[in-house]
User: Fold this.
Amino acid sequence: MLTGPGRPVLECEASDILSHTSLPADVDPNPHDRWHSLTAKVLEAAGIMGAFDTPKAKPRTTTGIMSELKMRAVWSVSLVQTKATYQRSQSHIAALGEMSSLKINDAFTDTSFLQRFVVGPHSKHQLVWAIIASVFIIWDLITIPLEMFDVAEFIRVLDTVGMVTLSFWAVDMPLHLIFGVQLRGSLEMRPRKLWSLYMRSWFATDLLIVLLDVGLIIMENLSTGQSSGAFRSARFLRSLRLLRLFRLVRVAKLQRELSLVASRFLSTYAFMVMKIVAALLMMVAINHIIGCCWYGIALGTGSDKTWVHRSGIEDADFGTSYVYSIHWALTQFTPSTNNIAPENGGERFFAIWVILLAMGVYSSFIGSISSTVNSLRAVRGEKIKQQSKLLQFFIERNLSLDLYGSIQETLRREGTVEVRLKEDEVNLISGLPERFKQQLHEELYIAAMQRLPFWPSWSEGQSTDRFFFSSLCHHAVSECVLMPGEDAFMPGTSCEHVYIVESGFMNYSLGNQDPSEIERDAILCLTCFWSEWQHAGRLSANSGTSYYITVNSEEFCKIAMRFGGRLSLYLQVFGILIVGAVESQHEQGVVTDLCFDWQRIEELASRAERFHSIFESLDNTALQSTSLQAKITMVTAAPTPASPRAAHWDHSGNRAQLAMDTWI
Assistant:
């Protein structure tokens, strides 16, 4: 018995309705007529409609590419089989782990007052601040070692800029309260947690450097006010400036800041070139510091027995002294000659440690540069080789110049478009246990699958259907990308997938019609789930990178039948409806890969769901005892054109589309 608002009461025995003897004696043995008779029996018993006249067969017409759609054989399973399959599939549900609601890049926040001011690690504010910090770190890296040369005008400039940098780093410390960070894949945006992280990392170093700068400024001001004494001596002032070398500890922050900037603006190829340039500059920076310290040691001894006096540059200008110093430093890292040697114990001790440092740094530098350059050369060489083969192919076959130019332009654009990382490019994923890969695919595609408009309302949030969706995401769904000018499919080709557009700009071309723009979440070739299909048009990327999801139709059918149960039965009913609707379009001469609008699909889903509720209300025991198993699709809705696979009758202003598939 089925009751509810607007629903009739069905009071009859299912065995009477579905038995062989209940068929009218004058019914034509044609299956369509038998389906009508059985359906009419159900509807009469339910009080929905009166007796029906046997429909007359309508002539079939042939239009477009496909004159008749053929349902896939897998959807001909009986109700008893779907129930048995469903009971077996429930044993797999316990093996599925719980899906975590926390995703990568999800932000942790709190309700504190400062929370409203917190900015993410990829925000423009952090990007600008990172650029300024990088400039000041590079400035310190270059200028602080140059204080060894004791150039008065240059020292005054450094003192002025030093006040600016001191103010910047003093402000930088409390800003860590509102600068969010990416921590183990999630965004940490809670001020209390951010400050705790800063206290355990750079706080002590930053505080010590700021206090050191403040102390140096105070000591230099005191020395300037003294007319004589220890505070006024050049050696004391030089010793104070040596303490500023401790500020170079901030160079360790430089890699983080530059990586943040480079990840926003550089492609993969440009980033590899940037790595080579950065390695060269780092080598120069190390030699710059060593050369300046080498000169400072000679001046700091206060003796005439130094390499400076031996070289005769004690009265030389800044440029000459710097060139001598940097030349000696570079010769320690490379197998080259020089005429500068240590003259005292301090210089010799420093030279020994420089040689030991050079042995490790230089070998690491050469290995890193060689590896990166070889990678770039291999990529470039392979590209040139393939370009030569393409040109040779066209020359040997005397093909058109216009086609060659179009292909060249398409290939040129491929290198300028950034593509997100694909799953098969991450080798570590292929070695994961199968359960983790299934969970990975479920989190990747479950949202897109559940957004499809034809699922019944009772399947949303139902844990018993999770095995179906998890298996669907793992075995049937794939992610694809289209570059500008590339095609997803061509007209006349066999269709094996349903296409769901994720993002990008795609066009669909059908015959001589103007291309239509495909919007996000658009569905193409949906009928492929239930019937064999051939592409009627062409789907291509217009401009920019386009991403879409494909669902293999054969795997979809296998998983639906393997899952069984009410969802499988519902999909069978919905499939009959949508195939009938598509064939109605074909009769009007409309053959397209584009799906109906979402409102129409939801309407068909609602019809299928209404009949499914009627079918479930029947006595299951009676259904299983009879030798006749049937699937009935009854739809009461607005008029639609007649379909060659569906019979239509008009009664009291209502139209019912009836389709049944029987096993005897």
